[in-house]
Amino acid sequence: QVPLKPGRSLMDWIRLTKSGKDLTGLKGRLIEVTEDELAKHNKKEDCWICLRGFVYNVTPYMEYHPGGEDELMKAAGTDGTDLFDQVHRWVNYESMLKECLVGRMAVKPIMAPKGECHSPAVWCHEASATESLTDLVSFLTVNVCVFCACVCLLYSYDWFQTDSSITVVLYTKQKDMNEELVIVDCQDKRLRAEIIVDDHSYLVEVDLNHAVQEDLTVTIVERVRKVEIVLKKKENIHWKALGQPLESHNTFIRRTDRGLFYRKCKLVSKTEVTHDTKLFSFMLPKSTHLRVPTGHHVYLKQIVAGTEVVKPYTPVLPCLPLDFKEPPCHAGAQIHFMIKIYSCGLFTQALDHLQIGDSISLSSPEGNFKKSQIGSSEDLFLLAAGTGFTPMVKLLNLALTEVSCLRTVKLIFFNKTEGDILWRKQLEQLALKDERLELQLVLSQPAKDWVGKQGKISAPLLSEFVKRSRKDSKVLICICGPAPFTDQGVQYLKDLGYSQEEIHAFTA
Ligand code: FAD
Ligand code: NAP
């Protein structure tokens, strides 16, 4: 992020888009844009960018872009879809830039060959290479499809019925199937069941033939690596078919090539954690089966001043007991967030105004932290600044309850003042109960009577606190906070001799 000029916040942008001003220079007309035409608009004062086949005039948005004008200019006059996906695929640009829409690209992107198994986004990505690469593209595409076809053989589904129920069975060949790898939603007769396989996923998505009741059950039969989803029929009639396949039905593709899927969740409680941070608990719909893995985040989406706004948040546990076990993902499970309300924050202000019973859209989880990273650690160091503490909550629980070889866990928690320290009492109690846990609080703006550590993240501070308990002990260092804090911390750790594999930085 770069510092934005005053009057260039997201709220200011939303106001401008609602002002009725002609932001495209085309007086509301939509045009077909050729590649040659697109390429001509490659200057700051005349900048068009193509995103997923639609062309936007982003010149008016330049000064409002949180990543800065230079980042936006990288895609000037070209198809910026890949670049966009790399940086913030979750941002709802359709809604944010709708007043900047110039039109569609004249030539449609080449589509993936239709079939039971296809990988459209991989195909489109490869097809955007220059014409001289066409042969290579076809070669890659064929091979990607062969790969997908092979993998699809490993994943399939079936269904059967009784008088009162429909059972959909997903067959996998995946070892260690667990609740976190299965996401099921059934909304308005639309059944969506996703099995996560590393950075890919297998999806069954159908428009059901008849209505079903709201609650569903999901059972993972580990022994035979299958997942059973039981839906209750609304009427006891015989179904001739399960339903109509939807676009991504029966596909195995990269997860990043699927759009984010949202479900509506109800706010059930809101409690104070500190003067500016609250614990929000949302109820998942009865028709959703979802568990957010440790170290992963979700996106929350709400309409603010008539525009959809999306922000990432990391779920926490409702509290920090020693022997906490996450309850099974039964119908109506809750999901908890610790969120700081910024006095001029666009999203958090709107969130704070939600009433109990109000709904918010919540995406499926994302993230690249793997449980296996922590599995064999002997020393775990958690460096958190402010709400960068949130991923550490589940990590602490996982480490202290499931990692048998763990000798030490040190949480080094950076805050401005004492009043900003999240769950301080709970952390101190946990450290008293479990002698492996050590808590190191560091304040950057302490009151005069603070006797603890003072300062900011620095190489000397890290060399004092981050030390292996034995010369050759296996270490994992996790770091999360404001982006510059995380970047600096990673650099200091590397300078101190820790390897890339020993460091995990939480980012979007
Ligand atoms: P914004 O409107 O974005 O502004 C917040 C404050 O920063 C304001 O004071 C604003 O003036 C200032 N600001 C913002 N952008 C700029 C800029 N470019 N230049 C100058 N000033 C600026 N937060 C939590 O509280 N809990 C979590 O669990 C959590 N998890 C996260 C997980 C991930 C992966 C990431 C990337 C972030 C997470 N965050 C979390 C942060 C969260 O996504 C939002 O950024 C945060 O809630 C602020 O949103 P907002 O719209 O209210 O604030
Ligand atoms: P904050 O209260 O502003 O800061 C917490 C501590 O970090 C303070 O001591 C502060 O010192 C210090 N700090 C701030 N910026 C720094 C910098 N550039 N270099 C060194 N130290 C710095 O923090 P916050 O408002 O809670 O913000 C938390 C951040 O964590 C947000 O940016 C959020 O997006 C991020 N976050 C990320 C994830 C994720 O990626 N998974 C999850 C949760 C939160 P000062 O006194 O100097 O300000």
Automatic annotation (TrEMBL):
<dbReference type="GO" id="GO:0006801">
    <property type="term" value="P:superoxide metabolic process"/>
</dbReference>
<dbReference type="InterPro" id="IPR008333">
    <property type="entry name" value="Cbr1-like_FAD-bd_dom"/>
</dbReference>
<keyword id="KW-0408">Iron</keyword>
<protein>
    <recommendedName>
        <fullName>Cytochrome b5 reductase 4</fullName>
        <ecNumber>1.6.2.2</ecNumber>
    </recommendedName>
</protein>
<dbReference type="GO" id="GO:0046872">
    <property type="term" value="F:metal ion binding"/>
</dbReference>
<dbReference type="InterPro" id="IPR001433">
    <property type="entry name" value="OxRdtase_FAD/NAD-bd"/>
</dbReference>
<dbReference type="InterPro" id="IPR001199">
    <property type="entry name" value="Cyt_B5-like_heme/steroid-bd"/>
</dbReference>
<keyword id="KW-0479">Metal-binding</keyword>
<keyword id="KW-0285">Flavoprotein</keyword>
<keyword id="KW-0349">Heme</keyword>
<dbReference type="Pfam" id="PF00173">
    <property type="entry name" value="Cyt-b5"/>
</dbReference>
<keyword id="KW-0560">Oxidoreductase</keyword>
<dbReference type="InterPro" id="IPR007052">
    <property type="entry name" value="CS_dom"/>
</dbReference>
<dbReference type="GO" id="GO:0090524">
    <property type="term" value="F:cytochrome-b5 reductase activity, acting on NADH"/>
</dbReference>
<comment type="similarity">
    <text>Belongs to the flavoprotein pyridine nucleotide cytochrome reductase family.</text>
</comment>
<dbReference type="InterPro" id="IPR018506">
    <property type="entry name" value="Cyt_B5_heme-BS"/>
</dbReference>
<dbReference type="GO" id="GO:0020037">
    <property type="term" value="F:heme binding"/>
</dbReference>
<dbReference type="InterPro" id="IPR039261">
    <property type="entry name" value="FNR_nucleotide-bd"/>
</dbReference>
<feature type="domain" description="Cytochrome b5 heme-binding">
    <location>
        <begin position="30"/>
        <end position="106"/>
    </location>
</feature>
<feature type="domain" description="CS">
    <location>
        <begin position="152"/>
        <end position="243"/>
    </location>
</feature>
<dbReference type="Pfam" id="PF00970">
    <property type="entry name" value="FAD_binding_6"/>
</dbReference>
<keyword id="KW-0520">NAD</keyword>
<dbReference type="InterPro" id="IPR051872">
    <property type="entry name" value="Cytochrome_b5/Flavoprotein_Rdt"/>
</dbReference>
<keyword id="KW-0256">Endoplasmic reticulum</keyword>
<dbReference type="InterPro" id="IPR017927">
    <property type="entry name" value="FAD-bd_FR_type"/>
</dbReference>
<keyword id="KW-0274">FAD</keyword>
<dbReference type="InterPro" id="IPR017938">
    <property type="entry name" value="Riboflavin_synthase-like_b-brl"/>
</dbReference>
<dbReference type="InterPro" id="IPR008978">
    <property type="entry name" value="HSP20-like_chaperone"/>
</dbReference>
<dbReference type="Pfam" id="PF00175">
    <property type="entry name" value="NAD_binding_1"/>
</dbReference>
<dbReference type="InterPro" id="IPR037908">
    <property type="entry name" value="p23_NCB5OR"/>
</dbReference>
<dbReference type="GO" id="GO:0005783">
    <property type="term" value="C:endoplasmic reticulum"/>
</dbReference>
<feature type="domain" description="FAD-binding FR-type">
    <location>
        <begin position="260"/>
        <end position="372"/>
    </location>
</feature>
<dbReference type="Pfam" id="PF04969">
    <property type="entry name" value="CS"/>
</dbReference>
<dbReference type="InterPro" id="IPR036400">
    <property type="entry name" value="Cyt_B5-like_heme/steroid_sf"/>
</dbReference>
